[in-house]
Amino acid sequence: MRLSLLLLALKGCCRQVLWWFHVLLQKTTLKPRETKESYVKLEMKRKVKKKHHFVLVHGACHGGWCWFELATLLRSKGHRVTAPDLAASGINLKPLEEIRSISDYFQPLMEVMASLPSDDKVILVGHSMGGLGVAAAMEVFAHKISAAVFASALMPGPNTVISVSQETDDTPNVVSFGPEELATKLYQLSPRQALTLAELLVRPTIMYSETDLLEKMALTTKKYGSVSRVFIVLHQDKMIVESEQREMIEINPVKEVMEIKDSDHMVMLCKPLQLFTCILDVAERYSN
């Protein structure tokens, strides 16, 4: 009997504590967007005017896995997401030594684009070296692309070529990211678990010769130039620094420049919600 009374008393005390906690919380609630939780709620309540198909293209040494947070956010709003593993990347089984050119590297992306129905127009999102793949797809499949987003991505143009080779001759060279470079150049502001994931999953990739890029990345104003392009500048990027991003924009102007001020190079893992908002805005305004 005494135990029952004691439990009832404790229950009453807990209710009182919770009531006062609720009152205090109401008085100290932060304004919308001041916390991650409120930001998520606001974005999740955002009305979707149209369902879109996003094709996400990863950068060097990474794979489709790096888009998992963004893909989850987009799918939660009913959008379709395709995040292919480029050749010898992610879980793609092609051996690195069998890749002879940048065309081989981007072949999985080209296969995705070729498989799309003629009435399925996508929003292409490229990150880092994935921007070259986006550009190549724009040249071949311009009629299937509503807009192209370059998130601190390499962005060539009809009159420019961007070299990603570290060699002085025309021999492709294999590169990889070690733990220190990942931690200090790519993921310095990202959550620790994102860095751990990268340390477990990154694979070596190839930097292609300038000759290969000139031959395989020929872009035209008629095709590549017909697709609306948006560039997302990342202020805290230490891999492709802000000045280099803006130089690409100056040489090859885009329809719109967006900015994420507090993101490192891996924006999809560092600031997935801000990237989510940016590309949804692009989809809603540039889709036709």
TrEMBL record:
> Which key words are in the record?
Signal
Q: Specify the signal sequence span.
A: 1-19
Does the record's keyword annotation contain Signal?
yes
Q: Domain AB hydrolase-1, which positions? A: 54-269
Q: Which Pfam families match?
A: Abhydrolase_6
Q: Which GO terms describe its biological process?
A: jasmonic acid metabolic process; salicylic acid metabolic process
**What is the protein name stated in its UniProt record?**
AB hydrolase-1 domain-containing protein
